[in-house]
Amino acid sequence: MERDTKIALAGAAIAKRERKRQERAASGGRTEKGNLMRMLFGIFPLLVIPVALYNLLALGFGGSVETVNELGEFTRLETAPILELLNGKFVGLPMISGVDWILTKGDAILLLAVVFLFLEILKSTSTGTSTIMNHAVSMILFIVCLIEFLLLPNFATSTFFILMSMTLLDVLAGVVVTIVSARRDFGVAGDI
Fold this sequence. Notes:
Blueprint: H1 2-26, H2 32-43, H3 48-61, E1 66-68, E2 74-76, H4 83-86, E3 89-94, E4 100-104, H5 105-123, H6 129-151, H7 158-186
Antiparallel strand pairs: 1-2, 3-4
Helix pairs in contact: 2-6, 3-5, 5-7, 6-7
Keywords: Membrane, Transmembrane, Transmembrane helix
């Protein structure tokens, strides 16, 4: 009887070890910490990065709206003070045609934002809870961008308007792509 108990316990231990191995294989070897990082990455909208970069430039290096002219009088600028910084050369390359191709700092921020918008649309194809949270945080980001655009002078630029439009497109496209992929995953037959 004692021998049978030992054999049963050994068999149970082997079965438990085999179940854990299969669970690790099914999860791709991810740990709880990996799942947490993946969830945070899923919630965090990547367009926060170019918006934060623009905010750093606008709030830190943008300049004042009011200046003093040559007569010592206070004058108010008609354009955003950050335009001079945004229109500054970031990269310049000579082309075969003989002209120089110039990428401005504002263009570089928009290029970064386009890449992140593409990644955000790819992320929205999943249907998990983190994706829904991502859409909510993206909507908050759009609202913050809209408030900045309307109220702060350094944010009234074409560069920031396009960036703000990308945050809106992230929300709209993300929700549409999530709904379409959820309907496909759900797999209901008929017109439902």
